[in-house]
């Protein structure tokens, strides 16, 4: 006889509406037990019909003996009892496993009253073994019970929330994201939720594999959701910075009202390197809460059926155990606090390192650009005499300032706003609609604003001169590389891109940012996809200028569609 004070270390209970629930669940339990212990034998004498409440099954007599087997290492006992009282029917099955170094009892209880049905699974393990206990095999039982219920119309649920063994992908729509966010923040939710976010490093396949494994490990305990790539940003906006998840992370949202830090987060590095541990980790965190769940009303009505066995299935009133649990909870809280502090320090250190690296990269790049400019100016100096002679002999000499702005003296610009105003007044072949401006005030507030302003105006002047003189060249890059004009922009990949990456154009959530305003003479819709852009600078905001070359089209102009911070990419979040 096992002691009644053996603590419950795992508990899952849910509603199940299937007819014949007692025999269906018992059959699943016996099949599961025999996969663990084949020595229990087959089900050769079993009846195919559900026994009446209070009557023994043909293969399991009323004294509770269902089957017993022993090996040199583990002694196993499988028992079943069925009873009825006050309109309530109850089936109880136990798999008692006693070994030299480990022992456990898995209990399945089925309760019905004609209109309401409950399935209840407990695992009891002695105090000295509970810390190292694993309930992975029991999760297989729970998954089978839930899958059978789903297929059989049992509508397995915890309160009003459906249970399942598969993760739910959240669509990137307001109708999907907002209700989930409201449920996560609400105080009336009774079921824990786990949310896994798409991992950009590994892609959707591995992300879904991790979500599926986590959903099966938490079956009967929590509902698992997965955020595809295009859903992450809407979810973050809906949840706010304290409750959101970052790409690749997994977060456990507890039911009820809690401080944000209580909703535990597993870093992307952990989820990625330990994909099978995510569900187990969250399951361990949930155990103390779940074993204290209130039993259903049907259990209270049938408790006299249990007699002195009742205490086996309720948390033991062991004072020492309660004190140990409280001490462990305090220790866990201290570990989590230290973990979050270390995580914050690591994040700050990484941010500082990245900023310093970016600054160094900017200095090196500016030095490289300056060296290239010196070489270009040296070539221009050697050719200046010939250019002057050609300009004087040209029939268009008297109209140089009208046809080509390259020789006009412009005031020194000190802000991007001033650069755009000056360009709109003086440039005839570059069109800049107001909708092209994005966060100009933020750019002009930055320390680098003067440098950025000069780059903006230099880039616009280069586009203007190209619009006048680029007919003999392939495109803007070709003109910058071969014209040797003093206003030419840098032709290297660090400063100019004529196309976006294949991934940016393939992914709708990134491509849509490149659908930019343009003259209706180019496109009747007033918008077109722009890929060509000037890389004005790097750093925290990394401003960019996107343009559409229509110099050989109906307008004969260059149309600027975007001036602002770096657009979103796989690695850059604007």
Features:
17 helices, 5-stranded mixed β-sheet, single chain, 20 strands
Number of domain modules: 3
Strand content: 15-25%
Give helix % range. 40-55%
Beta strands, count = 20
Please tally the helical runs, counting DSSP H or I stretches of 4 or more residues: 17
Our measurement of the CA-to-CA distance between the termini, rounded to an integer number of angstroms, reads: 65 Å
Based on CA atoms alone, the radius of gyration comes out at 35 Å
**Taking strands numbered 1, 2, ... along the chain, how are they ordered across the largest sheet?**
1-6-5-4-3-2
Largest sheet: 6 strands, antiparallel
Helix/strand-derived category reads alpha+beta
Q: Look at the structure and give the mean pLDDT.
A: 81
Describe the protein:
By secondary structure, the chain is α+β, with helices and mostly antiparallel strands. It contains 17 helices and 20 strands. It folds into three domains: about 160 residues, Alpha-D-Glucose-1,6-Bisphosphate, Chain A, domain 4 (2-Layer Sandwich), CATH 3.30.530; about 140 residues, Glutaredoxin (3-Layer(aba) Sandwich), CATH 3.40.30.10; about 160 residues, no CATH class. Helix 12 runs parallel beside helix 14. It is elongated and about 105 Å long.
């Amino acid at each position: 006889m096992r002691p009644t004070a053996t603590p419950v270390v795992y508990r899952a209970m849910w509603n199940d509406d299937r007819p014949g629930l007692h025999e269906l669940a018992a059959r699943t339990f016996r099949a599961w037990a025999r996969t663990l212990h084949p020595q229990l034998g087959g089900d050769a004498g079993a009846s195919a019909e559900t026994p009446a409440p209070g009557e023994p099954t043909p293969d399991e007599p009323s004294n509770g003996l269902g089957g017993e087997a022993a090996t040199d290492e583990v002694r196993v006992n499988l028992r079943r009892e069925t009873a009825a009282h006050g309109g309530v029917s109850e089936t109880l099955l136990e798999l008692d496993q006693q070994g030299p170094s480990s022992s456990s009892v898995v209990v399945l209880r089925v309760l019905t009253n004609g209109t309401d049905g409950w399935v209840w699974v407990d695992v009891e393990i002695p105090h000295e073994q509970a810390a190292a206990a694993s309930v992975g095999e029991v999760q297989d039982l729970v998954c089978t019970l839930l899958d059978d219920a789903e297929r059989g119309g049992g509508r397995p649920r915890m309160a009003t929330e459906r249970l399942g063994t598969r993760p739910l992908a959240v669509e990137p729509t307001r109708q999907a994201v907002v209700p989930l966010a409201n449920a996560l923040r609400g105080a009336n939710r009774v079921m824990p939720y786990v949310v896994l976010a798409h991992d950009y490093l590994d892609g959707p396949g591995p992300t879904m594999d991790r979500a599926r494994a986590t959903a099966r490990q938490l079956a009967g305990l929590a509902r698992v959701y997965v955020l595809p790539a295009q859903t992450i940003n809407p979810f973050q906006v809906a949840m706010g910075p304290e409750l959101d998840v970052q790409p690749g992370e997994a977060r456990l949202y507890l039911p009820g009202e809690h401080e944000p830090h209580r909703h535990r987060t597993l870093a992307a590095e952990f989820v990625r390197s330990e994909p099978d541990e995510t569900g187990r980790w969250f399951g361990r965190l949930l155990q103390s809460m779940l074993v204290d769940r209130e039993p259903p009303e049907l259990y209270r009505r049938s408790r006299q059926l249990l007699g002195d066995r009742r205490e086996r299935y309720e948390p033991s009133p062991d004072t020492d155990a309660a004190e140990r649990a409280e001490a462990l909870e305090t220790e866990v809280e201290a570990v989590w606090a230290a973990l979050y502090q270390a995580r914050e320090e690591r994040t700050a250190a990484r941010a500082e390192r990245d900023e310093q690296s970016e600054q160094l990269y900017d200095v090196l790049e500016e030095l490289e650009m300056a060296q290239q400019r010196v070489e270009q100016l040296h070539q221009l100096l050697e050719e200046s005499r010939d250019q002057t002679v050609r300009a004087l002999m040209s029939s268009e000499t008297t109209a140089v300032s009208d046809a080509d702005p390259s020789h006009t003296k412009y005031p020194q610009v000190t802000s991007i706003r001033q650069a755009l105003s000056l360009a709109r007044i003086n440039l005839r072949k570059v069109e800049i609609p107001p909708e092209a401006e994005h966060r100009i005030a933020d750019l002009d507030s930055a320390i680098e604003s003067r440098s950025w302003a000069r780059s903006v105006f230099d880039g616009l002047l280069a586009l203007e001169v190209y619009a006048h003189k680029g007919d003999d060249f392939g495109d803007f890059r070709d003109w910058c590389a071969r014209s040797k004009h003093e206003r030419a922009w840098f032709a290297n990949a660090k400063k100019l891109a004529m196309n976006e990456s294949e991934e940016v154009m393939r992914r709708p959530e990134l491509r849509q940012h490149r659908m930019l305003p343009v003259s209706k003479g180019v496109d009747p819709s007033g918008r077109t996809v722009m890929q060509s852009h000037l890389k004005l600078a790097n750093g925290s905001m990394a401003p960019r200028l996107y343009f559409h070359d229509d110099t050989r089209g109906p307008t004969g102009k260059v149309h600027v569609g975007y001036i602002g911070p770096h657009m979103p990419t796989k690695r850059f979040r604007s």
